[in-house]
Every structure is written in C-alpha cells, then in structure tokens.
Amino acid sequence: MAFSTLSIPRLPLLLHIQRPKFSFLTSKLQTPFDQFPHLSTLNPRHHQRSSMKAQASVSDLGIVERAIQLIQSSPPTWQSALLSNIIIFSLGSPLLVTGLSLSGIAAAFLLGTLTWRAFGSSGFLLVATYFVIGTAATKVKMAQKEAQGVAEKRKGRRGPGSVIGSSAAGCVCAFLSINGVGGEAFTRLWELAFVASFCTKLSDTVSSEIGKAYGKTTYLVTSFKVVPRGTEGAVSAEGTLAGLLASVLLAFVGYLKGQVLSHDLTLKPLRSTMVQEDVIRILTRFFFQINVPGAAICVVAAQIANFGESLIGASLQEKEGFRWLNNDVVNVINISLGSILAVLMQKIILQS
C-alpha cells in the first residue's frame, strides 16, 4: 500500500517529462515531404514538374536535331538554304556591318540563300571567302584613300547596288543550275561560270584597292600614260599582281572543296557501281567539282575580263553619252564577261 501511494503521484510527472520526446517525433512524422530534400522525389507535384522539364528538354533536343538534319539536306532545299543563312548571318553580323550597309546585308542575304539552294555549302563558302577578302582589301589604308579622294563611299560599306552588280552573273548561273537548264551536260558549266564570276570580281576589287594603296606608278591601259591613282581604267603592277593572287586563291577554294568530296567518296565506296554513279551524279549537281584545268580557266578568264573592264573604264566610262555606265553597270559587264569566257574556254578544251 505504501509503495502504491508513493509511486502513483510520480507517474504523471514521469509521463509529463517524457511526453515532449514523443510529441517531437510525432510532429516530424506528420510534416509534409517538401521539408525533406532527400524525400522530395516522393512528392507527386515535384515529380510532375520534373517530368515536364524532362519533356521540354527532349522537345528542345528534337528541334535542334531536326534543324541540323534540315541544314544537311542533300540536295539542298529552299528551307535548308533559308535556315542556314539565318544562322550564319546572325552569327556573322559583326563582320557583315563592317563591309555592307543594312540594305546591302538584305541583298547579300538573298544572294546567300540563292547560292546555298543552288550549290550548297560549297557555293556559300566561295561567296563568303570573296566577301572577306574583298572587304579586307577595301579597308587597307582607308585614311590615305580618303585623303586622296579615291576611297569607296561610306567607309567601304557596299550597298545593294554593289552587291547586285557584283553577283548578277553568279545569280544567273545559280538559277540555271537550280532549274537544270541544259541538263546534266551543262551542270558543270554553270558551276564553272559561277566560280569564274566571283574570281573575276574579287580580282578586280583587290587589284583596284591595292593599287590605290600601294601602286607606285599607275598607267592608263589605252595609252600607257602615267595617271593618278584611282583613275578609271588605270592599272599598276602592284594592284595587278594582288588581283591575280586573289583570283588564284578563290579558284583554289572551289578546287579544294571538290577534292574533299572526291576523297570522301573514294574512302567509302558503295557496293553497287550503278548506285555509286547515281550518288556522284547527284552530288556533282550540288557540290563543286572544279579540277586543276577548271581552276586555271577561272583565273585566266578573270584576268582577261578585268583587262576588258579597264578598257571600258578608260575609253567609255564617265564620257559624254555614257553617263549611265557607272561602276555597278561596269561590274555586271565585267563578271558576265568572265563567266562567258570560262564557259567558252571549257567547251574548247572539252572538244579538243
């Protein structure tokens, strides 16, 4: 009896002391799972959000893969050409604004899209190389040229007229190639004429700009009279040599691309000879296959056309009755002459 009397009052006190421990555990077990980072995956809402993020990342990856496949389309399509130019022009905008006005960039975008559709990445690479070298040559000793009054307008930034005048013949070749004019027998000729047109224009641009900057003695081609730098129809040894090297470099770009493609086809021969011939025929329609004679033809045609352009400039340009014969019109005549000469020389060589 005494034991029970002494122990009973202490029992509630003991339970009261121990209760916080049990209540603490109980409260922890009843808290939401969000308070436990290592158990957050058990939360249905968190799992749903993670699933949505995963689906979004997979969707984004699918869009990127489809875009890459579209760019690599062979033969090129208008969609692949448009997407490729949007990406390239967006990434290359800092360089473009140094050599082109805003309207000139718009004209160059149309040219790039047409070129990619007709000749794929090879044609675009050729035009891009032409633009980079031509812009660099224009910027050489710009302050000196401006002081002498022979520099290009707008700090050398070309407008749409210059872009169209420099690419008119190339655009015609691209349209002829896209529409298959003349059949497969003329496919290589349109390609050769395309390369020759830009070799001609690059040679003309570089020879003119380097001649203005470094030409020691400038001669008029019609009379070999010494004239000031920048005179229409005038040439210099320094400028002529620089223009020749520029055309060789651009022709080499077309030749190099063809050799890379031929090497790839040789390393991976197809089992069927007929299938291999079909593949090569398709690829040669959309990728440059300029060989050494073709590259040489482009260089020679460019030099002859530039000499003709100098004759026109010295005898007709800015003369009475020929005020319409401005630089853009002369550019069209120049590059068209280079393309036509390349085609004629190629036909003569093939026939012989």
Question: What can you see in these coordinates?
Answer:
The chain is mostly helical and 352 residues long. The protein has one domain (73-259, 277-351). The protein is 75% helix and 2% strand. The chain has helices spanning 2-29, 44-71, 78-91, 93-99, 102-139, 142-148, 160-178, 187-214, 237-267, 273-286, 292-315, 327-351; strands at residues 218-220, 234-236. The chain has a two-stranded antiparallel sheet. α3 crosses α5 and α5 packs across α7. The termini are far apart. Mean pLDDT is 79; it is low at 1-42, 260-272 and 279-287. This is Protein VTE6, chloroplastic.
List the helices and strands and how they pair.
Elements: H1 2-29, H2 44-71, H3 78-91, H4 93-99, H5 102-139, H6 142-148, H7 160-178, H8 187-214, E1 218-220, E2 234-236, H9 237-267, H10 273-286, H11 292-315, H12 327-351
Helix pairs in contact: 3-5, 4-5, 5-7, 5-8, 5-9, 7-8, 7-12, 8-9, 8-11, 8-12, 9-11, 11-12
- Overall mean pLDDT stands at 79
Poorly predicted segments: 1-42, 260-272, 279-287
Question: How many E-type strands?
Answer: 2
Gyration radius (Cα, Å) is 35 Å
Q: In what range is the share of β-strand residues?
A: under 5%
Share of helix, binned:
over 70%
State the secondary-structure class. Answer: mainly alpha
Distinct helical segment count:
12
Order of helices and strands: HHHHHHHHEEHHHH
Distance between the termini: 136 Å
Number of spatially distinct domains: 1
Strand order of the largest sheet: 1-2
Principal-axes geometry comes out as: globular
